[in-house]
Amino acid sequence: MRAGAYSPNHIGNDTAIFNATVDQLRKRGCAVTILSEDEFLAAGGKVDTPVVVAMCRQRESIAALQRLEDAGHLVINSGYGIENCTRERMTRILLGNGIPYPDSLIVNTNENVRPKLEAAGFKSCWIKRGDFHAMHKEDVSYCRHAEEAQEVLQEYFYRGINRAVINVHLVGDLVKFYGIRGSEFFYWFYPFDEGHSKYGWEVVNGKAQGLPFDLDHLKAICQKAAEELNVVVYGGDCIVDADGTVRIIDFNDWPSFAQCRVESAPHIAKAIIRIFKGLEV
């Protein structure tokens, strides 16, 4: 299970989708032992099962999952995939593989970034901690101009965060999505309109205008992102601009599926069993 510190404002939702998936696995004949993240670490990150289904996000847990995977266990989501969803790695992987993503800068938090922002043509932007998963609202910051961005970076530095990703702000409809790699299951919605929020930043883009976009294209780029990041169960956010262009702005390993938990859990369980049987395409 995922430690509560890594489920900001969604502890109940994250627990619920995990338990719903376990129920679906058991209904399909699987024997399942549940461990909290603390219990997993207390056991030295060792298990005696061939398959490990993981929502972990602590650094020590991720390293333990990677050791299990190296030793021959099937781990879903892979510890390497979970690590790839940290911001700097994710940015490099998505941009490096041609997946639509905002123009970005990767910086040290103790540097003067105003010249870089001006040279890149960034006005309003988002600063996100680059080294690990977000745990607090302050790990993601909206900045209206370069001077504010510089102040926020300095705060990150004082908090012990050494690296940050700066995304240019994209104007358009904010769309949240959930998916499972290799599955027909895919769900999307407008989070602001449905009151779904982790930190409240949805208010920046505001109410969706219903801008048209190619859903098949969104599914395709999410599938490619999941493949390149090495995650099976995923979710994230994208921006649809006025001409229908879609760009992913965030991609997460195993989100809450809060809007579609009942529908998604059977598909997650089926995907886990399919991969275990060696049937994944």
Structure commentary:
This protein is of the alpha+beta class and 281 residues long. It folds into three domains: 4-85 and 266-276, no CATH class; 103-168, Dna Ligase, domain 1, CATH 3.30.1490.20; 173-256, 2-Layer Sandwich (D-amino Acid Aminotransferase, Chain A, domain 1), CATH 3.30.470. Helices cover 36% and strands 19% of the residues. It has helices at 11-27, 37-42, 59-70, 79-84, 87-96, 114-120, 146-158, 215-229, 261-276; strands spanning 51-53, 74-76, 104-108, 125-129, 140-143, 163-168, 173-180, 186-189, 233-240, 246-253. Strands 3-6-4-5 form a four-stranded antiparallel sheet, with helices on both faces. A hairpin with a 5-residue loop joins β9 and β10 (246-253). The longest helix has 17 residues, at 11-27. The mean pLDDT is 91.
Brief characterization of the structure:
With 281 residues, the protein is α+β, with helices and mostly antiparallel strands. The protein contains nine helices and ten strands. The strands form three sheets. It has a four-stranded antiparallel β-sheet with strand order 3-6-4-5, sandwiched between helices.
Query: Helical percent range?
Result: 25-40%
**How would you classify the helix and strand content by structural class?**
alpha+beta
Q: Describe the strand arrangement of the main beta sheet, using strand numbers.
A: 3-6-4-5
What does the overall shape look like?
A: globular
Percent of sequence in beta strands: 15-25%
Overall pLDDT level: 91
Low-confidence stretches: none
Separate helix tally: 9
Count of all domains:
3
Terminus-to-terminus distance: 27 Å
What's the number of extended β-strand segments? Answer: 10
Biggest β-sheet, characterized?
4 strands, antiparallel
**What would you report as the Rg, rounded to the nearest angstrom?**
19 Å
How do the SSEs run, as a string of H and E?
HHEHEHHEHEEHEEEHEEH
